[in-house]
Amino acid sequence: MKHLFSTAAALLCFALPSTAQDSLHTNRMEEVVVTGTGTQHRLKDVPVQTEVITRRELEQYGGRSLEDILSGLTASFAFSEDDMGSQMQMNGLGNAYILILIDGKRLHGDNGGQNDLGLIDPARIERIEIVKGAASALYGSDAIAGVINIITRKYDRDGLLLENTTRGGSYGDLRQHNSVGFAIGKFSSLTNFQLQHTDGWQNTATEDPQQTEFLITDSRNKTVNRYTNWQVAERLTFTVSPALELYAEGSIYRKRIYRPSGKYAAVDVKTYDLQYRNASASVGGKWQVSDKALLTLDIDWNRHAYYYVFTDTTLVDGYDPYGNFTHYFPYFPGQANLQSDQRRTMGHLKGVFELPAQNRLSAGLEVRHDWLHAPMRVDHGGTVTDNTEALYVQDEYSPWRVLQLTGGLRLDRNQEFGFHLTPKLSAMVKPTEWLRLRAAWSQGFKTPTPKELHYRYVREMSGTYLYLGNTDLRPQTSNYGSVSAEIIRGGFSFSVTGYINKVEDMIALNTIPNYRAPEEYQTQYELHKTRQYQNLEDARTVGVDVNVRYAFKDFAVGGSYSYLDTDAHQYDADHERMTEVIIDGMAHHKANWFATWNHCFKRPYRLGLGLYGRASSMRYYQINGNGKAYHIWRLSSTHDVECRALRSRGITLRGEAGVDNIFNYVDRTPHGLHLGTTTPGTTVYASLTIRFNQGKTQFKSFNPNSKQNNNEED
After folding, report:
1. Residues 437 and 46: beta-carbon distance below 8 Å
2. Which range has the top average pLDDT, 16-20, 321-325, 621-625?
3. What average pLDDT does range 447-452 have in this prediction?
4. What is the pLDDT of residues 642-654, one digit of tens each?
5. For 127, phi and psi rounded to 5 degrees?
6. Strand-pair category, 418-432 with 555-572
7. Roughly how many angstroms between the first and final C-alpha of the chain, as a whole number?
8. How is residue 210 annotated by DSSP?
9. What strand order describes the sheet that includes 456-460?
10. What is the pLDDT of residue 110?
11. Residue ranges of the alpha helices (H) in 393-513?
């Protein structure tokens, strides 16, 4: 009843002239989260420290992408976007160590060790749950730094839903979202379409003078290239009975990156664009066997393919129409050349059981098959595979009201690296209603990916760079420990978390002497740098995260701060000594802050204003310079119109507008060197959402581990 009351209080803001913000804050603390333990807990009572970005916060901020949202609303993340995807960091560790889930399922799209977060439509996000630290015992590989779970909006009520969101901004930025949903009896359907486009921008026309024979000040290279992507996704749900629900879903995604061509062959002449073709399909269901037992089954298939699409006649290594490998095979404008095709098939069976003596047991079985085909970049005929199976079990035990204990164990078997056991332990103590103390220890485990083992490719970027896989790589393991304290009292919340994450045999790209490159590459190219995946001897990240928030009536203020320090060591075989190396992208200090005001005027208007800021100290890299420190400010506004005439017809209107980078900061570091941020300076945006609901149609966030999904938003 408490949860239902606080949810209702939040929704009343749309109908009353004013509502206290501390009621909204209380509702935020009552949010049901699932990522930390794989089972339902209220946010304030979850045993594992969990950070949540709610839908209300997402709408207030008005982010154009997931990168924009995470970097703007939490201090733990840093991004360095380029054509290959989002180079993301979470508390010092990069993409390969961060597991991204969409409704509990792994995001697929590894390209150069990065993720294309354009696969995630911001308009579909209900909330974001963030769990920091090794979570391999529950989620397996890729979860050494933490887990980001994107909970999307679902739909299962009688009637019809039509929704359109159109957003435009500076530099030709366009974001289009459409939803069509309907439900008839036990059957429901939700179709989503998204389109993203930008014309790109150029912060500088200067190339790094150390990597060119003479100073170039009129390069055509852009800071962010023009691109267009689109996605169509469908979800079908059939409710067999109140206890059994089945689903099928799938998506198609396409992206084209347009690269301008200049006059300097060594740095900016481009003869091909980049294209991605993704697809996914899933089936499964959940069965509430009894009040004390829930079973879920998910079977997923994903594909991520990466192509060169030629814009000029080009001689490259390739395959002729008969499938024969040929050196300097001619490609003509409009033709495409496959660079890599990655496919993954997964099956996941899970059970959650309520046991006597305040125990909740979770157990699961996972089977995973990875397939990589890269005819120009992988040995072994261009195709390699990898298979992993896993069993895991977790027990949540509450011997007393003030104490919650969680323990888990996972057994993985990989075809190349055999068996490995991964444990985790966590505890939460509630000495009072307003104080929570948490502690966690967990291990991580990650086997080398097929790309890290076998990939080889040459990249032209102000010089010729050779990237090499390494078949001698060893699996990575980690030990993560954290302690935290959280105070929640009225409209005030404060949390501080200290952590240490030590990774053994960490895999990272390291610069090696060019003479150690394969002979055919030394002969064919004038190599500027050769980089190879190697195991570091050890790597350590240590830090402190602080979050504070205060809400009173129509106002809310808060912020977050992250301190980070890292070190790593590697044995230098050439000089027979241990050397200290940098974990690329590390910044000692990052911070975010906000102040918002929301007021419900007399119908039909509700206004929200937000002032946001984010800052980072210098980011450190092994090569190509360091990223500059920066701070950026943002102003956003939201406008909800809910007049009775429109409401009676099931129509609601919402407008958003804002200015990003108010003080027009631009990093003009020459191309070829690292940037602190890619922002082009001051930009503006505006969007309009029109939603038509006929009947009792509603969105909801779907949790496959819940007995019922009551986290709804009209």
Report:
1. no
2. 621-625
3. 88
4. 766 677 777 889 9
5. -165, 165
6. unpaired
7. 19
8. G
9. 456-460, 464-468, 529-535, 507-512
10. 66
11. 450-454
Q: What is the token pair recorded at 671?
A: 């191309």
**pLDDT tens for residues 537-561?**
788 999 999 999 999 989 999 999 9
- For 677, residues 6+ apart whose C-beta sits below 8 A from its C-beta are 616, 627, 630, 632, 665, 667
Q: What is the pLDDT of residue 157?
A: 63
Closest CA to 2 of 16, 22, 23: 23
Please spell the DSSP secondary structure of 637-689, one letter per residue.
EEEEE--HHHHHTTEEEEEEEEEESTT-----PPBTS--S----S-EEEEEEE
Q: Which two tokens stand for residue 376?
A: 């120009």
In sequence order, what E strands does 505-601 have?
Answer: 507-512, 529-535, 538-552, 555-572, 577-581, 586-587, 589-600
Q: What is the 3-state secondary structure (H, E, C) of 111-148?
A: ECCEECHHHCCHHHEEEEEEEECCCHHHHCCCCCCEEE
Digit-coded pLDDT (tens) for 131-171: 888 776 788 777 888 899 999 987 766 678 999 999 999 99
Residue 65 is which amino acid?
S
| Average confidence score pLDDT of the chain | 85
Query: Could you write out the DSSP letters of every residue in 319-354?
Result: E-TTS-EEEEEEE-TT-EEEEEEEEEEEEEEEEEEE
Tokens of 472: 């001698």
The span from the CA of 420 to the CA of 412, in Å, is 5
Lookup: tokens for 582:
């940098």
Match 């590894």 to its residue by tokens.
Answer: 110
Alpha-carbon span 691 to 655, nearest angstrom = 12
Given a contact cutoff of 8 angstroms between Cβ atoms, the answer to whether 128 and 148 are in contact is yes
If one counts every other C-beta atom within 10 angstroms of the C-beta of residue 421, the result is 11
**Residue 678 in tokens:** 């890619």
pLDDT tops 50 at residue 287: yes
Nearest to 433 by CA among 29, 10, 87, 9: 29
Strand partners of residue 238: 187, 246
Q: Which residue has the tokens 């760079």?
A: 465
- Tokens 């154009």 locate to 64
CA distances, 681 to each of 70, 618, 625 (Å): 19, 19, 22
Above 90 in pLDDT, residue 480?
A: yes
| Strand segments (E) across 617-682 | 619-620, 630-641, 651-660
Packing angle of the helix pair 21-29, 2-11 (nearest 10 deg): 140
Task: State the DSSP string of 400-467.
Answer: ETTEEEEEEEEEEEETTTEEEEEEEEEEEEEEETTEEEEEEEEEEEEPPPHHHHHBEEEEESSSEEEE
CA distances from 65 to 18, 124, 485, 714 (A): 31, 11, 31, 23
The DSSP output letter for 43 is G
Tokens at 441, concatenated: 């220890």
Q: Per the omega criterion (within 30 degrees of 0), is the bond before 604 cis?
A: yes
Q: What is residue 711's predicted lDDT score, i.e. its pLDDT?
A: 38
Q: For residues 390 and 415, what is the distance between their CA atoms, to the nearest angstrom?
A: 12
pTM of the predicted model, to two decimals?
Answer: 0.88
Residue with the two structure tokens 């097929």: 450
Find tokens 């991004």 and name the residue. 79
Cα–Cα dist 281/682, whole Å: 40
> CB of 379 within 8 A of CB of 392?
no
Q: How far is CA 617 from each of CA 70, 631, 674, rounded to the nearest angstrom? A: 17, 9, 14
Structural Rg of the chain based on CA atoms? 25
The confidence score (pLDDT) of residue 9 equals 35
**Domains, the chain, ranges and CATH?**
31-707 (2.40.170.20)
Cβ contact 591:638 at 8 Å: no
DSSP 455: B
Residue 46 DSSP class? -
> Predicted confidence band at 50 (pLDDT cuts at 50, 70, 90)?
confident
Q: 304 and 109 in contact (C-beta within 8 Å)? A: yes
